[in-house]
Amino acid sequence: MADNAFFQIDSKQTDSFDYITFFLTITLIAFGLISIYSATYTYSNAYDTGMSGTFYRQLLSGGIGLAGMITIFLIPERWIERNSIFLYAIGVAMLVLVLIIGKSTYGTRGWLSIAGFSIQPAEVAKITTLLAVAQYMGRKGTDIRTIRDFGVVAGIVLLPVALIMLQPDTGSATVLLAMTFGILLWTGYNIFIIYSIVAMPFIVIASLFNQIYGIIAIVIFSTIAIFFRQKILLTVGAIIVFIALGSGAPLIYQSLQPHQQDRIATFLDPNNDPRGKGYNVIQSKMAVGSGGLTGKGFMHGTQTQLRYIPKQWTDFIYSVPTEEFGFVGGVAVIALIMGLIFRAVKTAQMTDNPFSSIVAIGIASIFLYHTIINIGMAIGLMPVMGIPLPFMSAGGTSLMTNMAMIGLLLNIYRTKKIKR
After folding, report:
1. H helical segments located in 255-317
2. Residue 262 main-chain phi, psi, to 5 deg
3. Predicted model pTM
4. What pLDDT is recorded for position 8?
């Protein structure tokens, strides 16, 4: 098959279609649409669903996303790999453009309005950055353990991270970092360094809770660091950083933006401002807990139908299925997402192409991070960061981006036996 032969499938390169990934995706989207419909429905105007057609916009985005997913599935894998840097440049250009002419919502200049549709460039940047990182790391001779190659990868990631932080959108920026950590772990980077970096925010959060908690966290993470049996200078250096972060946590907190401080304070104790900053988290926890084993029934959730949780169809969407379908519904959502993550990792293991393997593991990392943070937000275990639940939260760009990533997984699965 010629490299430029679009929308063709060579039988020699095809052994099957990944029906499991496709089924999990469609089922999750259906769960999301059901939850959004219930969360936005008003009995006075069922056709509008009460929120300017939020449900119908999500349905339309799902249709566009499905077309995009199929298109990406059929595009030659080599074309995607060879044009990754060009796509990355487009993603960066969009991030620059949104800072100039973007639309501000809730203090974040993160949306471009095109022909009546709002596009969030930070979502697009997840895919384009992932492709660029995979394209570079997939080259022959690249070794992420060298300073040169690590520096190049860091530059590829940190450029969009910096632009996203200027919006400011801390949540989306952390997604790119989490994706990078997953890729580094997969490609054999020093696990001790990854451990040390991941430990840092936990030490900071513990120190913000209480000085005693901070000391305990430092002792625990430092003890674990010793058991890695790394070079003594590296271990001592990590422990010194842990101590410095624990001691300097209050200064780090003071350097944040007011809305970021509010989110952290709410995370530490929502009851400090139960009618203000902590209101959403408290109501979400009530909704999740009140669902019991099997829930109150579709469109019979008290918190959901009486709008106790503002914007519950976005950040706190997980509270809807857990209230209406209970523990069973909540577990079903998690099982479906974890199923997709497992399939992504499995696909990464199957493929013979380093580029494709890194793309698949990057997608798995993105989905996993989104799920942990979003569900953690809904049950009060994570700070509110504005990170959507994959395929569930309302948001056209987010849904289409996720479906594009599924298209990449299906494409990789289709061509997994091609040798490089």
Report:
1. 258-268, 279-290, 302-305
2. -60, -40
3. 0.86
4. 47
